[in-house]
Structures are given as C-alpha cells and as structure tokens.
Amino acid sequence: xxxxxxxxxxxxxxxxxxxxxxxxxxxxxxxxxxxxxxxxxxxxxxxxxxxxxxxxxxxxxxxxxxxxxxxxxxxxxxxxxxxxxxxxxxxxxxxxxxxxxxxxxxxxxxxxxxxxxxxxxxxxxxxxxxxxxxxxxxxxxxxxxxxxxxxxxxxx
Length: 156
What we know:
- The protein has about 160 residues and is mostly beta strands.
- It folds into 2 domains: about 10-75, Signal recognition particle alu RNA binding heterodimer, srp9/1, CATH 3.30.720; about 95-155, 2,3-Dihydroxybiphenyl 1,2-Dioxygenase, domain 1.
- The chain contains 2 helices and 8 strands; from the N terminus they run βαββββαβββ.
- The longest helix is centred in the first third of the chain and has 12 residues, at about 15-25.
C-alpha cells in the first residue's frame, strides 16, 4: 500500500477572494492559506516563471486533508471567462464530493450566493463498495459560481 494521500485539490478561478468567500460562507470552512506569490512555470504549467498569483486555501474539519485551493493569476495567461448556467460536467473535470449534515442550509446559502443548483437535496441509494447492500444518501448537486461541480451528501 502506498503512503501517498490526497491532501488538496486546487482550481484556477478568476477571483480567488470571491471564490474563497463562497466556501467559507456556504460550508463554514476556514482560511488556511492566503498569499500572493510568484509561480514556477512547472507547477501548474500555465504561466511563465515569476507570474503573480493569489492562492487561497480553505480548510474543512480535518487538519491535514480536506483542503480546497483557489488560485487566481493576477495577469492571467488565458481566458478567465466562467461558463454560466451549467447543467452537465465535461470530460476531465473534477467532481468535488463533500459530506455535510446541513444539506438544506447549504442548499439555501449556496443558491443565495450564486450557485447553479442542478438537483436540490434528494434521497437516493448507491451500492456499497463490497457489493453487499446500499448506502442511503441525501445529496445536493450544484455548480459553484465559478462552474466547479460538486455533490454534497449525507448518510441517512
């Protein structure tokens, strides 16, 4: 077994401050990191060495994992337009899966802050990982204001 763990996912966004505000207000996450920095063209391979970026990392409950990075190039080397009114994900996109108990509150806060709700909280089931039985879930499906897709669920 590998000792590699997935600590964080980072998304490129047009406005790191606004993106972080969405996650702190909707989910109650806290800021773990908030800095302007010079990027290395290799990490991620998007802009030349020394390009300036604003990186905000918000943190969920766990002290080591469950972090979400939101990175804004201050002079972006690409189009920063956000696809609005999305209803489907595309090949290669990440899907954030978040576990939270207050689905109704999250649904209302997200909608009020510009999220595109695909499906309000609904009950459904998926097979268990061992194939014996089902997980009973309540899940909300939405795109945040930057077009990042997520499923927010709780076990019921």
